[in-house]
Amino acid sequence: MESSLPSSQILDSGGSAERKNEATNYNEVMSTLPKVKGWRGCDYYLYQGFRYDALVLKGLVSVQEHFHPQSTDIFVASSPKTGTTWLKALTFAILTRSRLSGSTTSSLLTKMPHDCVPFLEFQLGDQNPKEEEGGEVQKITSMCSFEELSSLEVNKNAEHRAPGISIPIQNSVFFRKGEIGDWANHLTPEMGARLDDIMEKKLKGSGLKLPR
Questions:
Q1: Which of 3, 6, 88, 130 has its CA 20 to 30 A from that of 186?
Q2: Structure confidence by residue, pLDDT tens digits, 21-58
Q3: Where are the chain's structural domains?
Q4: Is residue 126 very low, low, confident or very high in pLDDT (cuts 50, 70, 90)?
Q5: How many angstroms separate the Cα of 20 from the Cα of each of 2, 11, 65, 96, 107?
Q6: Which residues contact 72 (CB under 8 A, 6 or more apart)?
Q7: Structural contact between residues 23 and 11, judged by C-beta atoms closer than 8 angstroms
């Protein structure tokens, strides 16, 4: 049976005795959650209808308890393998367009998108109707194109180390072929149909319809 985590038992970083006690309590509560063994050998815990590994779950619950959204916040949200890297690149380029877009000093030319946007801490500037006429949109489109991003040295040969993960990941794995339908080379039709069915059930009532 699915469990919820009490609001007073949240893991927080730091070395104080109070925070260490919170971490201990959190781990005790986690031990009551249903879990299954993942294909990599780590445990996945059932929480609010979804399964998470311990690291992600701790961060998720901490955000639920402590994060207070502002009207100016921007959230980048995407499902795994649906273009998160590209979405982050576009977001970063748009939000920094006044000083970085189309410039040789853009961080996107020396860092991968996941390092440019580990967490969103930007505010969207006022829209300028002259930007499109001035070619700003085209500059962003060109800089964030698959061909441009995948050909950068940092994305071909450098490594990315995600927060809390000790093993580095080659940046090149985030840039595949950039072709629609490549999933068919990795999944069987039955697996694809199963994923479609799961998405339809999860999105039921949201008004969002995804093409099969």
A1: 88
A2: 666 667 777 888 898 888 778 888 888 888 888 877 88
A3: 17-66, 84-174, 179-212
A4: very low
A5: 26, 8, 17, 38, 37
A6: 123, 124
A7: yes
